Amino acid sequence: MQCKQLTRVFFSPNGTTQEVVEAVAQGLSLEAKTRDLLRNPLREGQSYAQEELVIVGMPVYAGRIPLLCREQLAHMKGNGTPAIALAVYGNRDYDDALLELADLLEENGFSVIGAGAFIAQHSIFPKVGAGRPDGEDRKAMADFAAQCAERLARMEPGKGKRPVIKGNPDYKKPGAVPLKPSADKSCTRCGACAALCPTQSIPKDAPMKTQKDTCISCGACIHVCPVKARAFRGLTYTVAEKEFNKKNAAYRKPEVFY
After folding, report:
1. Is pLDDT of 160 > 80?
2. How far apart are CA 209 and CA 214, in angstroms?
3. Residue 37 to residues 20, 27, 30, 216, 237: CA-CA distances in angstroms?
4. 9 closest CA partner among 101, 124, 126
5. Alpha helix locations (H) across 42-132?
């Protein structure tokens, strides 16, 4: 099967999920479009033809894909459209997130030809997975892209065979992260964080604050702050960081499924 166009779809508050998606896309050598679900949320139906290829990359939050992303991805409709599912996680575990993403794509009319779980620097505890994706990760992404291209070339339109993907089909129960970012006195009130926050959890008139009941701890506000005023901080964070770093220091490798 020959595809005429590639669409990259991702939610990437810290830039690493986008990096993974773009690395895989580069290995497929197709003219590409981009849908950034953080900066350009999908709120209405989007249909994809059978001769298109879609790569969807999601960060892993507590073993699942973000709920707000599930809601956006529900608007994507395939017509036997081949798709590649990518889960990007911070060296702890991706649990059921990759399976959940592949299931959602299949339910919406896509034919998943490949799925991969790749490691990036943890968005809350950055010492875990520091420097990831690294050279070995990028090599794994290139190899994965080559395998997906080969599988796509052999595939008959609308007749792709879905890979068996690790995970529990009942999915892990979603969990909220109790740690929330906040700003210190260096905040200039520029409003960049409030403008980007995907859950509108930062008041535009008081951007140094965070509405903890709606914040999903994605870290977009930290990544976009021009003066680095926002961060996860406090005694609870310091204690949790020490324990998390100790438990998740071992180097984990990407896992792929065809």
Report:
1. no
2. 12
3. 15, 22, 21, 15, 28
4. 101
5. 67-73, 97-107
Query: Up-side HSE of residue 184: CA atoms within 13 Å toward CB?
Result: 10
Instruction: Report the distance separating Cα 16 and Cα 193, nearest Å.
Output: 18
Q: Give 50 or 157, the one with higher predicted confidence.
A: 50
**CA dist., res. 83 & res. 69, Å (int):** 17
> Mind listing the pLDDT tens digit for each residue in 18-42?
999 999 999 998 999 999 999 999 9
Q: Is 234 left (phi over 0), alpha (psi -120 to 50) or beta?
A: left
Beta strands 46-48 and 81-89, pairing class: unpaired
Report pTM.
Answer: 0.96
Residue-wise pLDDT for 52-93, tens only, equals 999 999 999 999 999 999 999 999 999 999 999 999 999 999
**Residues β-bridged to residue 231:** 182
In this predicted structure, the answer to whether residue 158 has a pLDDT above a threshold of 80 is no
Distance CA(100)–CA(106), nearest Å, equals 10
Q: How far apart are CA 117 and CA 37, in angstroms?
A: 19
Assign 3-state DSSP to the chain and report helix, strand, coil percentages, each to 5.
Answer: 30, 20, 50
CB atoms within 10 A of CB 2: 9
| Distance separating alpha carbons of residues 189 and 248, to the nearest angstrom | 35
